Automatic annotation (TrEMBL):
It comes from the Eukaryota. Transmembrane segments: none annotated. InterPro entries: Mito_Transl_Release_Factor, Pep_chain_release_fac_I, Pep_chain_release_fac_I_sf. This is Prokaryotic-type class I peptide chain release factors domain-containing protein. Residues 104-140, 154-178 are annotated as: Disordered. Belongs to the prokaryotic/mitochondrial release factor family. It holds the Pfam family RF-1. GO terms for molecular function: translation release factor activity.
Length: 178
């Protein structure tokens, strides 16, 4: 497990200020395991082409060659990106997408995207479990309240059915006689 450097620096300064008191536990700051590093793609493996874009964005998109098409020569994977009107940003996005596709193709279930999807799935399952537990507890609470109300009603009906009630001389509490 790793700690983000910013968080580490922040809590290191807090720790030095509050060291005698120990107001927090250092282990509670640990974050989840880091993702594997991204695959490096060399320029020799890629053929790059700039195309005229299409779709929304108006005349400027249609006139300029800002869309980027990358082809990974060893595998033949082609990626096209026209997210923005900037050629440089599109190049960056296309390289990221190509790297993710290559990583997924090579590693399968151990790729960055698979790990991210698994983390999201487990986080959602945990949240769903917590929600189910919460509503189950609420339902049990309502049943308990209804059960208590029925018990109180039954007790009230039982005492009003002509049972003589006497006050205890010692405590002053009304007690039904058997």
């Amino acid at each position: 497990m790793q700690v983000r450097p910013v968080v580490r620096a922040l809590f290191a300064s807090l720790h030095s200020a509050t060291a005698p008191n120990r107001l927090y536990h250092q282990c509670s700051i640990l974050l989840e395991k880091a993702l594997p590093p991204r695959r490096k793609i060399t320029e020799d493996e890629i053929s790059e082409a700039f195309l005229k874009g299409s779709g929304p964005g108006g005349q400027k998109i249609n006139k300029t060659s800002s869309a980027v098409q990358l082809k990974h020569l060893p595998t033949g994977i082609v990626v096209k990106c026209q997210e923005t009107r900037s050629r440089e940003q599109n190049r960056k996005f296309a390289r990221q997408i190509l790297g993710e596709k290559l990583d997924e193709m090579e590693k399968g279930g151990e790729s960055r995207t698979a790990i991210k999807a698994d983390r999201a799935r487990s986080k959602k399952a945990s949240a769903d479990k917590k929600t189910r537990r919460k509503y189950k507890k609420l339902a049990e609470g309502k049943e308990a309240v209804v059960g208590d109300a029925e018990f109180v009603d039954a007790a009230a009906n039982k005492t009003t059915q002509s049972e003589p009630i006497e006050k205890s001389v010692a405590t002053g509490i009304e007690v039904p006689q058997p």
